What we know:
Elements: H1 2-6, H2 26-29, H3 44-52, E1 58-63, H4 69-79, H5 84-94, E2 106-109, H6 114-120, H7 126-136, E3 145-152, H8 159-162, E4 165-171, E5 179-187, H9 191-203, E6 207-215
Parallel strand pairs: 1-6, 2-5, 5-6
Antiparallel strand pairs: 3-4
Helix pairs in contact: 5-7
Bound molecules: zinc ion (ZN).
Amino acid sequence: MILDLLFPNRCIHCNRIIDSELLVCDLCFSQIHFTHYNYFENNPVKEKCLLFFPVENTFALIQFEEESLSRKIIHDLKYRSREKAGKILAEWTTERLEFEDEKPDLLVSVPLHPKKLKERGYNQLHLFTETLSSYYKIPFDHQLIKRNHYSKAQALKDKKHRLESINTFSATYPITGKHILLIDDVFTTGNTISSVAWEILNAGNNKVSVLVMAVDV
Length: 217
Ligand SMILES: [Zn+2]
């Protein structure tokens, strides 16, 4: 209580004093660009995923634009110890996404490399995933996929791809017959989520859907 008086919670955008549970004030909230994607219909994330792997459904909460408030929110979540932003983003998601009778079986977020996890102190996707898990009553598993070393792609002839680092992931136990909802923060090229998706698809007779906080396509 005393801390609240000394260091009141402020809107991350305009610095106005706001309720301790909030991230932005009402005025700034109205400037956030929500995507309004329908999880069950075609959308830019689905189109891009389909170039890489067979995806069932996709959802993205906000648009990740240059100089936008969305960018600031994700940046705070990842780099300014604003772990609670994950919970708030999850609440905004639950207000906009219904699985109807096609609920996934398991929520799996993209893991950080252990070195990065140590630097940051938390995985910015965990609180987001856990909040969704308790709202939708779908279990989550932070252990299923682990991130291995970064390796360079050398064999590809395409220059753009040749220079890109590839994240490698592996499943830590056998899994089959599951519809897994993969969760990540920002969707850009789709490379990372595709690597994780293939790990799950190759592990057994599984299905994959995708949920991202922000989309930058
Ligand atoms: Zn504000």
